[in-house]
Specification:
Belongs to the Nth/MutY family. Adenine glycosylase active on G-A mispairs. MutY also corrects error-prone DNA synthesis past GO lesions which are due to the oxidatively damaged form of guanine: 7,8-dihydro-8-oxoguanine (8-oxo-dGTP). This is Adenine DNA glycosylase. It catalyses: Hydrolyzes free adenine bases from 7,8-dihydro-8-oxoguanine:adenine mismatched double-stranded DNA, leaving an apurinic site. It is an enzyme of class 3 (hydrolase). With about 350 residues, the protein is an alpha+beta fold. It has 2 domains: about 5-210, Hypothetical protein, domain 2 (Endonuclease III, domain 1); about 230-345, Nucleoside Triphosphate Pyrophosphohydrolase (Alpha-Beta Complex), CATH 3.90.79.10. About 45% of the residues lie in helices and about 10% in strands. The chain contains 14 helices and 8 strands. The chain has helices at about 5-15, 30-40, 45-60, 60-65, 70-75, 85-100, 110, 120-130, 140-150, 160-170, 175-190, 210, 270-275, 335-345, and strands spanning about 230-240, 245-250, 260, 265, 285, 290-295, 300-310, 320-325. Strands 1, 4, 5, 6 and 7 form a 5-stranded mixed beta sheet that branches. Strands 3-2-8 form a 3-stranded antiparallel beta sheet, with no helix packed on it. α1 packs across α11 (about 175-190) and α2 runs antiparallel to α8 (about 120-130). The longest helix has 17 residues, at about 85-100. It is elongated, with a radius of gyration of 24 Å.
């Protein structure tokens, strides 16, 4: 299929079936596109929608985001995961205000230089937000192109990735670029899905190499699997019996960076030793079953240890690290910790 025919087929399908009702598609601006694209990285549309709406209600423009504290940002991000995205978003907003007069750059190079914005995200911001011709290559687009052209192997392989970028660049039209890029993402998300794709309704399925050769399930190849390492710890759920827990603010780096969480220990003996130093009676300590939370690069197995003090006035060392707080969705707690504390409080 010639490039023009491919573009025409994709745009014709978009005019009939494309998604136009999503929150970030209303009053589309570079800022709104940027926020949505960052949130949509590694995250499903249905999950993102309520977070996007709450985030935009609090931070309607880049200036309000830049002027906010990171605590405000991370509290609204809590539960969405991949928290480096929130840190990069906040840093980028301040750079945009300080160096670009509050306007997102309109060049691919300047956009890609901002924290958390890669080549595909920059292309989406330019094309969807400003109508500037720029190719994109998110996971959905990779899958469509790999299947249509019969490109085998894992798309993350540098050699294959370079080939896909060349193809995306060649296929991206000069007119209706926003609709085309949105159409390619929609096509991958709703028709050319990972499993059970709707090939019979695909606008470019007639000359799809993977479909013609019966290799839909094999193309593209999945990422080579690797065994995730396991990290283990004990978490102290110290509660005063009135709904508050002693929580510590994590450093703004690493997983759960900037969030509130429970004190962590390497072994159960360390928990008893810590409580002893703080003159906390832990004779009623309750050991809950081990839980697992999986990050992108490792499993975390943790054992919650519940201690009920009956008082929130015990003197705890390093007071700058911790505070007695009632867990809820406004203070920036990791989703598995919020779930755990809610269960304990009940």
């Amino acid at each position: 299929m010639q490039h023009e025919n491919f573009q025409r087929a994709v745009l014709g399908w978009f005019d009939q079936y494309g998604r136009t009702h999503l929150p970030w598609q209303k009053e589309r601006t570079p800022y709104r596109v940027w926020i949505s694209e960052i949130m949509l990285q590694q995250t499903q549309v249905g999950t993102v929608i309520p977070y996007f709406e709450r985030f935009l209600a609090r931070f309607p423009d880049v200036e309000s985001l830049a002027e906010s504290s990171f605590d405000e940002v991370i509290a609204l991000w809590a539960g969405l995961g991949y928290y480096a995205r929130a840190r990069n978003l906040h840093r980028a907003a301040r750079i945009i205000v300080e160096r670009h007069r509050g306007q997102l750059p309109t060049s691919l190079e300047e956009l890609s230089a901002l924290p958390g914005i890669g080549r595909s995200t920059a292309g989406a911001i330019l094309s969807l937000g400003s109508g500037i011709r720029a190719p994109i290559l998110d996971g959905n687009v990779k899958r469509v192109l790999c299947r249509h052209r019969g490109i085998e192997g894992w798309p993350g392989n540098p050699r294959i990735l370079e080939k896909l970028w060349e193809l995306s660049e060649a296929l991206t039209p000069s007119i209706r670029v926003a609709d085309y890029n949105q159409a390619m993402m929609d096509l991958g998300a709703t028709v050319c899905t990972k499993r059970n794709p709707g090939c019979s309704t695909c606008p470019v399925g007639r000359d799809c190499e993977a479909f013609r050769s019966g290799r839909i399930d094999a193309i593209p190849a999945t990422k080579p699997r690797r065994t995730l390492p396991v990290k283990r710890c004990f978490m102290l759920a110290l509660t005063n019996g009135h709904g508050a827990f002693y929580l510590e603010k994590r450093q703004n780096v690493g997983v759960w960076g900037g969030l509130w969480s429970l004190p962590e220990f390497d072994c159960e003996e360390d928990v008893y030793a810590w409580c002893g130093k703080q003159h906390i009676d832990c004779s009623n300590l309750e050991r809950l079953p081990q839980r697992r939370h999986t990050f992108s690069h490792y499993h975390l197995d943790f054992v919650p240890l519940v201690v009920r003090t009956g008082s929130d006035h015990c003197q705890i060392g390093e007071p700058s690290l911790g505070s007695w707080l009632i867990p809820n969705e406004t203070i920036g707690l990791p989703a598995p910790i919020l779930k755990l504390l809610t269960e304990i409080a009940d």
